[in-house]
Write a structure and sequence with these properties.
2 copies of one chain form a homodimer. Chain A has 12 helices and 10 strands. By secondary structure, chain A is an alpha/beta fold. In chain A, a hairpin with a 5-residue loop joins strand 9 and strand 10 (290-292). In chain A, helix 1 packs across helix 11 (299-314) and helix 6 (146-163) packs antiparallel against helix 12 (317-343). Chains A and B meet through helix 8, helix 9 and helix 10 of A and helix 8, helix 9 and helix 10 of B.
């Protein structure tokens, strides 16, 4: 029921997912208003063999505050969808609904696996010159200490390996320079833990802002404040350049003619940075797979969010992360143990 | 002597400044190797009426560390240029040299006027849909408390009014959302001081990353860590889109023909985001005007850095900032005074 459009986009998203990504053996539990959902299933030629409808009248509004949604959300389509993951009925949940409510309800029902985090981390799949780079956190954890940054690295790596594939993902921590002494205490300490912690990660050191679009590394780790601002700044710049382009290419008759000739090439270029091709941001750090689709996504975009959820669910993502997070807990407890050992001789 | 090119660009920059921006009544002290400088003066038809040469053999290398430059830099062209401002011989210094050395030597000789800052702030002039927005700090002060953020607001406003002109500049603090409770303690406290401090500034509240390129406000205030990453992320995205464009417009014969037709319009567009048209970042927070040109800037770019220095020197920038910084000191001392007053009755 979530997102700006509700069932028409969500159900058409199932069709798009099956059309573009196959989806053999994937079945869907659709939570919400049965009549509205069944109407869309008919329109998209989806039968009961693929979709099972779980009726509820209750909906979490897009404007509801997270605390409100947690108190009053029980039995809503969003709540029931997350519950189905907890109960083992579903391998993952995909929602285009209220982000704050999805985070709060997911945390309440599934609990955090990353104990350093206050809230699940949001990862952005960023198109780059070399492919796709995962950037996290881009939203929820505004102040991130070294432990949280390392958790982002662990989860981002497992996410990139499961969804964007191709070899062992490389990791960088976002900073104001690449030298070891650059930046504040949190990034320097996180770098130390990643280098010495024995997580088996390909940690490449500090990266700078322009390394994101270059694709210097596969996973860029940063606190939620900086990540959110970097992402939105990038969106702003992309829209700014696009507005200038449009202005330039309609500014004269020859420019218009030129634009017409170059149109197919420009369209192919646009596909490379098409938001719907990268739609679907998993909420990381939970005991279960939760993928957030953009509220304004179209069916193709929602289909891509489904693809990400399926790839995460079919991979070893959850076990891999759980193992590394346990290792992190051990590493963080170590200094205390060493101090104790050093005290023994006395 | 500074920058990637030395006298050929610096002296040609003087010519460009005079050609593009008039510069009546502006005279130049050129510090460095007299023979090299005089050769460039002859090449650019600049006489002794405009340029006075101050010879020195000593140069701060581009690779020198700031601490090294402070210890060994005395008598170098960079040092002497800053000294001339301190001595009242020059109204401003413009350098394309070693940024760290320029900051360290400027701080040593001119001293900070903004007492909350460890280092001068660097301001970026950011092209937007509405004109130019000043973003600061983009480099030096990696951890910025509320006092520093307010200092950035005061200095950024005076800079924008002096250089980018046109009405009273509006100010926003960069954050992850526009609501009052968003972000961390430092930004919320800075917002409170700006709202209640009586600085006579047009403070508009929190802005998000995409507001920079939109030009929502004239001055965007942020800590040096986030500002540096936002700026470099934006540069990376601009280069990424430019690379995709180039690829698209050379990908087929019709695309190439289209690009050719649209070329004049695309060139005009490029001028709007031409780095040399916005080159010149003042180091703010010093008792004197210091403008840093990009090391790789061309003569036109260096000429623009000169323009910025002249406009700052001819404006009431320094007095205006000094007055507001004094006001800030009073405001910050106030709570302590109130506490004392509240204790009196006991």
């Amino acid at each position: 029921m979530g997102g700006d459009h509700g069932p028409p986009v969500v159900v058409a998203g199932v069709r798009e997912y099956r059309k573009r990504h196959g989806g053999e053996g994937v079945r869907f539990l659709l939570h919400g208003d049965e009549a509205a959902i069944r109407a869309e299933m008919a329109r998209n030629a989806l039968g009961d063999d693929v979709c099972e409808v779980r009726h509820t009248d209750k909906v979490v509004a897009m404007t509801e505050k997270p605390a409100q949604a947690m108190r009053r959300g029980k039995g809503s389509s969003l709540w029931n969808a997350v519950e189905a993951v907890k109960a083992g009925e579903a391998g993952a949940v995909v929602s285009a609904g209220n982000t704050g409510a999805l985070m709060a309800i997911s945390k309440l029902i599934l609990r955090m696996s990353a104990h350093g985090l206050e809230r699940p981390a949001i990862v952005a799949s960023w198109p780059t010159l070399r492919g796709v780079t995962a950037v996290l956190d881009v939203g929820a954890n505004v102040e991130s200490d070294a432990e949280q940054l390392v958790e982002f690295a662990i989860m981002g790596e497992a996410f990139h390996a499961a969804v964007h594939g191709g070899g062992k993902p490389t990791i960088g921590i976002l900073n104001v320079g690449s030298e070891d002494m650059k930046g504040h205490e949190e990034v320097r300490e996180a770098a130390r833990i990643l280098r010495e912690g024995g997580f088996g990660l390909a940690y490449n050191g500090f990266v700078e802002g322009d390394d994101i679009a270059k694709g210097t590394v596969d996973v860029v780790v940063t606190d939620g404040f900086t990540g959110n601002i970097a992402l939105k700044t990038a969106e702003g710049v992309a829209r700014f350049i696009s507005a200038l382009m449009k202005e330039a290419l309609t500014s004269s008759v020859p420019a218009k003619a030129g634009a017409l000739l170059a149109l197919p090439a420009l369209k192919r270029m646009r596909q490379k940075i098409d938001p719907s091709a990268i739609n679907g941001g998993p909420l990381l750090g939970l005991n279960g797979i939760v993928v957030k689709s953009h509220g304004g996504a179209d069916a193709k975009g929602f289909g891509n969010a489904i693809r990400i959820a399926v790839e995460l669910a079919r991979s070893d993502y959850l076990e891999k992360v759980s193992k590394s997070l346990n290792r992190l807990t051990a590493v963080l407890e170590q200094p205390a143990a060493e101090d104790a050992a050093m005290e023994t001789p006395q």
